[in-house]
Amino acid sequence: MDCLSRRGHSNVTKTMAQLPKAMLENIDNDTDVREYHEPIDLSMAENWLIREEVLGIGKLAIEKHFDGHHLSMPTDFWGNPRLLKLLANLFNNYFAPKIPVQQAHIAVSSGAATCLDTLLWNICNEGDGVLIPGPYWNGYDVHCRNRSATSPILVSFPRLQDAFSMALVTALEKTFASSSCTIKALILTNPHNPLGQCYPKPVLEECLRFCQRRNIHLISDEVFALSTFNPSQVDLPETRHFVSMLAVDPTALDCDPGRVHVVWSMSKDFAAGGIKLVRAAASITKTDIYNS
């Protein structure tokens, strides 16, 4: 790797060491098709139930609406204006935002992982810590460490069910106080991955107040937002309706809306993990960014 810079060499070495062996073994495989009859891989979190429906909608949309202007250079730094408008409509219709989502609140990136990486790179310094209630998706370890060089800090609980109660805030305070590094952010996965539960709104509000007290950012990873069961139709204890962080009004809680970031992707809700399209919505405007 003599052709790489020091940081490039470090990045490649760390990344390759964390990739699953099976992924590296398939690098020369020219087939990229998995059939329905193959064993279900629960580690992939792919939604095959609506794949045929989504495929049909996609083909029809391309046939009827794909035009030359779709191949042109983007006209807006933050994303295609029509796409931003459609995304704003989606969030306003399905995420019940307390503050209506505007196009100016949205930035588009090439996947949820890229969005998270970009957020951490810009709000954290090298060596800063990021609180993540456990158990958490192991991908956070990679996305925190590889480029932004931040440290994922596990927030643990005496009992697993405490993760969705007010005991979460107590655990956050305890972990924050005992951390040996500077904490810059809290990541919540809502609906939770891997537990699949949703956070009650009062708990989300207290998490926001915690972040305000500690002067840190709150990142709400909501990639499973529209993939939840209706509690009235599921015979499972502790099943709750999904409440987005967008449904919490930070100004009513005397919290800074510029420190709240919501990440959402098509990958789970629209069975399109191979299409890297995501949005990060925060209650900030482009003017706020320019003036900061």
TrEMBL record:
GO biological process: one example: amino acid metabolic process
Top-level taxon: Eukaryota
Keywords recorded for this protein, A-Z: Aminotransferase, Pyridoxal phosphate, Transferase
GO MF, any single term: transaminase activity
Keyword Ribonucleoprotein (UniProt): no
Signal peptide range in chain numbering: none
UniProt domain Aminotransferase class I/classII large: residue ranges: 65-275
Cofactor(s) essential for the protein: pyridoxal 5'-phosphate
Keyword Lyase: no
Cited InterPro entries: Aminotransferase_I/II_large, Ethylene_sulfur-biosynth, PyrdxlP-dep_Trfase, PyrdxlP-dep_Trfase_major
Family: Belongs to the class-I pyridoxal-phosphate-dependent aminotransferase family.
Protein name: Aminotransferase class I/classII large domain-containing protein
Species name: Letharia columbiana
